[in-house]
Amino acid sequence: MIGDRRINALDQILELVVLINDDMTRSLARDGLTVSRTHLLWELRRHGPMPQRDLAAALRVSARTVTGLVDGLEATGFVSRQPHPTDRRATLVTFTERGLRTVEAMEHGQREFADLLFAQMPAERLDCLTAGLGEILNRLRGLDPARQQPSEGDR
Amino acid sequence: MIGDRRINALDQILELVVLINDDMTRSLARDGLTVSRTHLLWELRRHGPMPQRDLAAALRVSARTVTGLVDGLEATGFVSRQPHPTDRRATLVTFTERGLRTVEAMEHGQREFADLLFAQMPAERLDCLTAGLGEILNRLRGLDPARQQPSEGDR
DNA sequence: CCACACCGTGAGTCATGCTCACTAGTTTGT
DNA sequence: ACAAACTAGTGAGCATGACTCACGGTGTGG
């Protein structure tokens, strides 16, 4: 029955989520990072130095929370606060040397991880996997942030 | 280049992890549950009433943590503590009526979720997705709990 | 009977995230 | 040009969740 296959696939996905999550958390902890802090770092990586308010918007958390995250990242030397060139109220969060190196190392590590994960997987299977994941992602994106009444069960 | 495809696929997986995680957390919160508490519930569902020490082993957390989780689940009426029939030191954690109903509803919701996620996906793509995920899961399982020096980067 | 096992509590840590109130700067509207 | 209105960041305080170690009571079993 087709339903069983779907359940099966969903189970796989749920297990994947757990495993990746754990692995991520563990690996970040080794670097003295946490998930939220890393999200911030990635935002910075994508957009360059930015004021905290923009980070708050991008990460969808309150300004106060960003202050806390930046505090932590600053304390461990990944980012530093710089004066905003034109708005003296604002603070520009920028990478330190170390922060930049760390993020680059993470990108590199990610590449290695991808290679490890998909090693010896034939190209067509990889394509098909990508296509399938793409479909699923579209559906998931559709029911994520805005709506509130629509969805129902997940795990 | 093949590496790019892999990075791509990994990015998809990472996004999937985030989306599913958020969705799960939100949906569980609606039921008055958290992820850890739900893990415990699932363990109970799989193995039936069990003493806390077994839960601790199954969930790989300390006994103290289990006490806390069970406290929470008991307070919200999902489980209850029963005396162990033969070992009077031990406590059997069992579902309440409500807990059982909730877990069954979650299973049902999961089925619906799977249908939603894979709706209109041709069978062969589903198969291929499953196969690909299976491969990845095997690799991930391999580097999860025991080893400590081996892996490297993830997100 | 005594070492060990099962639970529970106390106390404390860390991460995340919220609100409220406040300061210091910036804009806007006359 | 200047006050009113708003914005950026943060101090203080609170809650929740997950987890730990250390300690103690009670029961088991050799």
Task: Please provide a written account of the structure.
The structure is a homodimer. With about 160 residues, the first copy, chain A, is mainly alpha-helical. Chain A has 2 domains: about 1-30; about 30-140, Winged helix-like DNA-binding domain superfamily/Winged helix DNA-binding domain (Arc Repressor Mutant, subunit A). Chain A has helices spanning about 1-30, 35-45, 50-60, 65-75, 95-120, 125-140; strands at about 50, 80-85, 90-95. In chain A, strands 1-3-2 form a 3-stranded antiparallel β-sheet. The longest helix of chain A is centred in the N-terminal third of the chain and has 29 residues, at about 1-30. Chains A and B meet through α1, α5 and α6 of A and α1, α5 and α6 of B. The first copy, chain A, binds a DNA duplex (30 and 30 nucleotides) through α2 and α4.
Strand order of the main beta sheet of chain A, please? 1-3-2
For this structure, what is the CATH homologous superfamily of the largest domain in chain A? Winged helix-like DNA-binding domain superfamily/Winged helix DNA-binding domain
Question: What is the typical, i.e. mean, pLDDT of chain A?
Answer: 88
Helix content of chain A: 55-70%
Overall morphology of chain A: elongated
Quaternary organisation of the protein chains = homodimer
Q: N- to C-terminal separation of chain A?
A: 21 Å
Number of strands of chain A: 3
β content of chain A, as a range? 5-15%
Please give the radius of gyration of chain A in angstroms: 19 Å
Describe the sheet with the most strands of chain A. Answer: 3 strands, antiparallel
Query: Regarding CATH, which class of the largest domain in chain A?
Result: Mainly Alpha
Biggest interface and its residues per chain? Answer: A-B, 62 and 62 residues
Q: What is the CATH topology assignment of the largest domain in chain A?
A: Arc Repressor Mutant, subunit A
Architecture of the largest domain in chain A, CATH level 2?
Orthogonal Bundle
Q: Which sequence of SSEs, written as H and E, runs from N to C of chain A?
A: HHEHHEEHH
Number of helices of chain A: 6
Number of structural units classed as domains of chain A = 2
InterPro entries (chains A, B): HTH_MarR-typ (IPR000835), MarR/SlyA-like (IPR039422), Tscrpt_reg_MarR-type_CS (IPR023187), WH-like_DNA-bd_sf (IPR036388), WH_DNA-bd_sf (IPR036390)
Keywords (chains A, B): DNA-binding, Transcription, Transcription regulation
Protein name (chains A, B): MarR family transcriptional regulator
Pfam family, one (chains A, B): MarR
